[in-house]
Amino acid sequence: MNNRYNSNDARNFVSTHPHCHPDLALRVYTSRLIGQEQSLVLHGGGNTSVKATVTTLLGDQTDTLFIKGSGWDLATIEPQGFPALDLNYLRRLRTLETLSDEEMVNQFKTHMQDSSAPNPSIETLVHAFLPHRFIDHTHADAIVTLTNMADPETRLKSILGEMVAILPWTMPGFPLALALAECYENRPDIEAIILRNHGIFTFADDAELAYGRMIHYVTLAEEYLQASQTVTKAQPANTTDSSRHSRLDPTIILPLLRGALTIDPVTPGTIPPFLLHVRDSEIIQRCLGRHNSQTIYTTGVLTPDHVIRTKNYPLWLDLQGRDEDQTALAISEAMATYEQSYIRNFHAQVTAKQVKRTLLDPKPRVILIPGLGIITAGVTEKAAAIAADIAEHTLMAKTLGAAIAPYQ
Asked: Who's near 348: CB < 8 A, 6+ residues apart?
């Protein structure tokens, strides 16, 4: 991954935003650099912040946290995409023993300096509790791939070095903020924190250094993954079974899929028609046609943040050698099995956690079909395309990871 920071560009960016705090202008500049890398912040993943002292309407000097706001894309973010919050008040929240998500969001909204600003990130308290002026957080594909393996700490430390701390996955919000703050205070020499199954945080009091650390550590992970792509004696990593996975006719399969997606086993008649998006490049075909492809690619998401776009698991359909009637039956049966599993899991989770939740539709958003490709479903064209982007990144990440250890 290339370090895109350019000192002249940074200075020019600050000078062309004279009504913006200089530190916030630098924050916008490096945030855009991060946003240009899809393998770092695919579709809203990750967030950035900066701490600065600003003058209020009454002339008071106030310590302020500028944090990425919901709905903004880091690749094109503007200064107004960073809501400003009372930093000293946010830090006082650390004295609480518990803080619900609902009350946390309320505290954010009641301590913003501009009521018209977007909602702050759910991870605002992470950025407030850590002391650094600039904090960068991404869901880097390479980092998450390495954390989604059994007992990854030893491997990660050997790859990234001793200046990185590694934490188990923690629920975003107040618990995560407490965990990261305590981690840093126990090891104030570290340059980054890896959160398993989630991503990486880098930090510094300088915008260029915080960004450079992000690029450095993600690059180390990428280089390790690439160097691990060896051919095993048992089965070459890119071997495909061409006899089993010939190209299928999408004009038969896609209408049948759309029909199966409209049948609602929970609340009949409430599901809007789905639009389908197809990705069928040669590399996708090779991945889906490789040895043990179903085992490799039907595991869960790279990070829990993806479930709102893709659900946790894809639907796998092997439709090779079937006529149209057999294909229709196979799709119907596989869809019903997927839905039943989804509904069972929903009820098991709400029972285990003793909470009340509303069951969403149990339809898959990602469908993997050897011989056809990645098919994603969305109620809008944009939703289907976003799911496809995430699914394609997930496929590539799992392909790289499969050469190292089983995905978890």
From this structure: none
CATH number of the domain encompassing residue 68: 3.40.225.10
Neighbouring-strand partners of residue 194: 166, 200
Instruction: Tell whether 291 and 190 lie within a shared domain.
Output: no
pLDDT in tens, the chain (408 residues): 999 999 999 999 999 999 999 999 999 999 999 999 999 998 878 899 999 999 988 999 999 999 999 989 999 999 999 999 999 999 999 999 999 999 999 999 999 999 999 999 999 999 999 999 999 999 999 999 999 998 899 999 999 999 999 999 998 999 999 999 999 999 999 999 999 999 999 999 999 999 999 999 999 999 999 999 874 433 444 445 544 578 899 999 999 999 999 887 666 666 778 999 999 999 999 999 998 999 999 999 999 989 999 999 999 999 999 999 999 999 999 999 999 999 999 999 999 999 999 998 899 999 999 999 999 999 999 999 999 999 999 999 999 999 999 998
- Tell me the residue type at 226: Q
Rounded CA-CA distance 284/26 in Å is 38
Question: Does residue 294 sit in the same domain as residue 397?
Answer: yes
Alpha carbon distance 31, 68 (integer Å): 9
Cα 251 from Cα 394, distance rounded (Å): 26
Q: Angle CA(294)–CA(298)–CA(301) in degrees, nearest 5?
A: 155
Question: Strand order of the sheet with strand 315-316?
Answer: 275-279, 373-378, 366-369, 315-316
Residue 69: strand pairing partners: 120
* Residue 294 and residue 207 in one domain: no
Three-state DSSP at 261 gives helix
Do 363 and 261 contact (CB within 8 A), yes or no?
Answer: yes
DSSP-derived letter for residue 233 is S
Number of domains in the chain: 2
- Within a domain: 202: yes
Token pair of 205 as six digits: 């009091």
- Rounded Cα gap, residues 359 and 367, in angstroms: 21
